[in-house]
């Protein structure tokens, strides 16, 4: 049975969070002389002299409507990377606790573990890029606080078997964090709808991919109210700036545009896969539920270097475990994909 108090760091249990001026006063006023801001404005067309809403209430309310989740179950971070770091700092004691990652996967889990002095136990995915449940069970010990699962997975592109994830959620007494950065492109349903079923579930999403807002750096975590309360205590007081909040609200009003882009991306992905299959140096193209494809080639480094010389940048993943010889190729526009294919046809 999951109990947050069993995995929460003692210093975080007793943490009194920083109380900002905007935390202490909530309401309407005409004169603000409480936060030592510049009362005269900003040297910009838009004034950014006032601190932003520390809890991003308006953005969360809009996301609540779109995602079907109460605002109290939403955490916003400076990218998903901040949410990952906050979870480490909230639940993992440096030099004592450990987490489990399942390579090949998103590299930031390992980096954040290293920064926070937390051991990251690696349990490789199977050859078809699914969870090794037996290996994960063997790796878990009394100091294992978190299991990270990326689904659809980066860099492989596939979704992780839902039943396997639910097995972990039902049997692990720590947090199971499902990173759904690419869920908008997937045939698999989001795990957000399972929040009421599993108290130890944290779902990460982002506005960087399908929503096209990578430059704004807005990541989302969805979890129980008690987990979100902990994350809000640990985060910096004004972690999402005013410009990002304003632009995010504007973007979130354009769901149809995003859905149209998703449909176009999936159509372009299918065309790209068909064209790549005709290349003599392509050994395999793995099934993808994301806006990229993982392509096994005869010589990934040589092909990568050739493309770089032609001004086309893909990702060389040949040095990643279980991705030897592989390139990760993002699905571009029709024109970009055609240029890629025409260039690859010149590769000898």
From TrEMBL:
EC id: 2.6.1.9
Modified residues (N6-(pyridoxal phosphate)lysine): 209
CDD domains per UniProt: AAT_like (cd00609)
GO BP annotations, alphabetical order: L-histidine biosynthetic process
Listed InterPro entries: Aminotrans_II_pyridoxalP_BS (IPR001917), Aminotransferase_I/II_large (IPR004839), HisP_aminotrans (IPR005861), PyrdxlP-dep_Trfase (IPR015424), PyrdxlP-dep_Trfase_major (IPR015421), PyrdxlP-dep_Trfase_small (IPR015422)
Required co-factors: pyridoxal 5'-phosphate
SUPFAM superfamilies recorded: PLP-dependent transferases
Domain of life: Bacteria
GO molecular function: histidinol-phosphate transaminase activity; pyridoxal phosphate binding
Ranges where the Aminotransferase class I/classII large domain occurs: 46-342
HAMAP family found in the cross-reference section: HisC_aminotrans_2
Designated name of the protein: Histidinol-phosphate aminotransferase
């Amino acid at each position: 049975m999951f109990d947050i108090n069993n995995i929460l760091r003692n210093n975080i249990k007793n943490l009194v969070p920083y109380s900002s001026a905007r935390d202490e006063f909530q309401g309407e006023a005409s004169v603000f002389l409480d936060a030592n801001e510049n009362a005269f404005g900003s040297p910009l067309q838009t004034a950014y002299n006032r601190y932003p809403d520390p809890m991003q209430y308006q953005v969360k309310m809009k996301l609540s409507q779109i995602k079907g989740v109460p605002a109290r179950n939403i955490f916003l971070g400076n990218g998903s990377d901040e949410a990952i770091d906050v979870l480490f700092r909230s639940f993992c004691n440096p030099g004592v606790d450990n987490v489990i990652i399942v390579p090949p996967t998103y590299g930031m889990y390992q980096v954040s573990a290293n920064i926070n002095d937390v051991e990251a136990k690696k349990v490789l995915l199977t050859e078809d890029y699914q969870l090794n449940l037996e290996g994960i069970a063997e790796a878990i010990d009394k100091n294992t606080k978190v299991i990270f699962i990326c689904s659809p997975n980066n860099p492989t592109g596939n979704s992780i078997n839902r039943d396997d994830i639910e097995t972990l959620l039902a049997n692990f007494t720590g947090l199971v964090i499902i990173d759904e950065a690419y869920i908008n492109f997937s045939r698999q349903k989001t795990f957000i709808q399972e929040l009421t079923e599993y108290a130890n579930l944290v779902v990460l999403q982002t506005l960087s991919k399908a929503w096209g807002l990578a430059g704004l750096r807005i990541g989302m975590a969805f979890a129980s109210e008690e987990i979100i309360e902990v994350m809000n205590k640990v985060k910096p007081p004004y972690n999402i700036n005013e410009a990002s909040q304003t632009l995010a609200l504007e973007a979130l009003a354009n769901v149809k545009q995003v859905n149209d882009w998703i449909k176009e991306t999936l159509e372009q992905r299918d065309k790209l896969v068909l064209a790549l299959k005709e290349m003599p140096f392509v050994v395999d193209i793995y099934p993808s539920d994301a806006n990229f494809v993982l392509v096994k080639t005869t010589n990934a480094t040589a092909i990568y270097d050739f493309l770089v010389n032609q001004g086309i940048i893909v990702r060389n993943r040949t040095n990643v475990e279980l991705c030897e010889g592989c390139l990760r190729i993002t699905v571009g526009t029709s024109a970009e994909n055609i240029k890629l294919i025409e260039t690859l046809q010149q590769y000898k």
